[in-house]
Design goal:
The complex is a heterodimer of chains A (290) and B (391).
Chain A lengths: L1 H35 L3 E3 L2 E3 L5 H7 L2 H35 L4 H7 L6 H12 L4 H8 L14 H24 L4 H9 L4 H12 L1 H17 L2 H6 L7 H11 L3 H28 L11
Chain B lengths: L20 E2 H13 L20 E8 L9 H7 L1 E8 L3 H7 L9 E5 L3 H8 L2 E2 L25 E2 L2 E2 L2 E12 L22 E2 L4 H11 L11 H10 L1 H4 L9 H9 L5 E6 L2 H7 L5 E3 L6 E10 L5 H11 L2 H11 L2 E2 L10 H5 L6 H7 L16 H12 L3
Parallel strand pairs in B: 2-3, 2-4, 9-10
Antiparallel strand pairs in B: 4-12, 5-12, 6-7, 8-10, 8-11, 8-12, 8-13
Classes of the chains: A mainly alpha (290), B alpha+beta (391).
Chain lengths: 290, 391
Amino acid sequence: MMKGRRREAMGLALVAPSFLFLLVFFIVPAVLLFVCSFWMAQAFKLIPAFTFDNYSRALSASGFYLLTWNALKNGLCTAVLTVGLSFPAAYFIVYRTRGNLLFYLILVSWFSSYLVRIYAWRVILGSNGLINTTLMQLGLISQPLEVLLFSPFATILTLTHIMLPFALLLLVSALRDVKKEYVEAARDLGASNTEVLTRVILPMCYKGLVGAFMFTFVISAGDFVTPQLLGGRDGMTTGILIANQFRTAGNWPFGAAMAFLLLAAFLIVYLGFVRLLDLLRLAPGRRFHD
Amino acid sequence: MVDTPKGRPFGRANLLRNDVLSRRDFLGTSLALGAGVAAGATLGAWPGPAHAAVGGDLKIMAWEGFTLDNELKAWREANKVQVDAAIISTQDDVHAKLIGSNPVRLDLAEYSQGFERFYVDELKIVKPLDIARLPNFTAANIYPEFYEAPTWYWDKTHFALPWIWGLNALVYNPAMTKPITTYKDLLAPELKGKVTFCDDTIATWPMIARLAGFGPKFPNLTKEEMKTAFEGLGPYRDQCRVFGSSNGDVISLFASGEIAACFSVWSGTPVETAKRGVKTVYAVPAEGAVMWCDAWFMPISAQNIDTAYAFMNEAVAAKAQAEVAKAVTGGAVNKHAPALMDADTRALFDYGNLPEVFRKSPLQGQPPRTSDTYATYDEWTQAWTDFKSSF
């Protein structure tokens, strides 16, 4: 009895610091920001009120939809590409290699800063950059390919590069929970390679898969620096609208309202993704029934 | 002399009673609710050590390159002054630290023209200056365009000390385009995809109004006039593939050969691109340029008052002016500074005929924060965002 209580107290002690940290610096500010989204503002002064004006203003602006669509496209493309590229790598690392060398080689790109990587891609993709110069020297093109830089392609490529190690880390961790014995057992029972993948591995690493997808999606869709620096004239995303309200216009309530609308869009994508996995019978709970 | 920090204690705003809250009130209350303790967030406003004379630590906030690190080095050492400089990224960074019940300690900060009434009358974050404590800032030393001009002086009160100015104008790469003499030259087919705008509203908005024929009216344009002005800018936007997010980004775009011209950007851009091996030219087209002027002001949270006055006084001394003008490719406000400049720095502006410089490139303010008649700052910001987003 005493041992159980002590263990419970120990558990609470272990959880409390991070819980308190999140409570103080995330949950409470987020709740207050939500409250603030119903307020009004005038020249950096907040006016407590209860109005839906900020939400209706955002929802009636065509620009908000267009930039949100840009953000969602960036997020979805990056998440699909990142997870698609990192899953085979994670599979290889977990099941086919004994050491972690490849894993560490991929993670090493974390050792450079985010902005440095953005500017590096500018150099690589630029009119006088590595790719264009090489292609021109090989005589394959006569003019620089302008589609490479200041385009959605540049944004998604860079975001994929930035996000890939994160997704890999999550997927390797998830796949390590799928023991080789399960895979071998499935094969012994006559499962093909595809069946092993779709009916054993993917359902068993479902949480890692959803985590990796949503993690890369949310960060990529919320990013406005990469699209601003690499996306070109039409590459702006909702983040810049929100940042403008907080920094330049001094209208926190309107910025908060847009942020929560974006959050709602993210939640819809999350529910859609989970539903898709369910329909594809890749979610746990389906695997034992059919 | 030490002033007591102004403002209410942290987190004292009453959410239920007050009908207006500043951002800092809101944040303060938020943190208090969350943590139950607000001490950490008030560190910046706690009274610092007393300074009976010039010396000690001086907390300033200025644009990068405008902190006078080199120019006032000897003065700092002689007076044992340690300058703790925070860098301004956008002007909003300054008032974000000063508004509300708990202003962060800053002994000096800068504001660009157009922020004066907003800072003094609306936000009330500026201490009036005692001009007698600035012996270098006299009518005999300072150009009349800057001395007791309405941007910094009204109601017989000096609210800030103008100390450095310059022009935001068109910059182009002569290797990529023929000389540009008017903004219309930017519409040439060969410049398709090679033009950019810098995301600097102070530098760009007045020129947008001017191109539409509303130049003298800026910053007070009606909503219709503002709309017309942005509509007229459509063809220029169509020449762009990318917007420069800052002066530095524009310099980077010039250096990598991605752009041939920038609509309106810092006049020091050619100096910076030259450091990267790319020659660019700063030109004042027929339509003129946009003048900027930075001024030191004393925030309400200033504590080391004596040193702040001494620092400002040194900033407008002729020698420091000549040196900083060279360093930032800017203009001096001190009449005696041009004589101490090298030829290139002196040639940047026509010091012999400053009234003509002002006539062609007037110092203009910013749209009103609130107005029933004119397009407000918020509306300009929205229109600018829409313009950049190609809506």
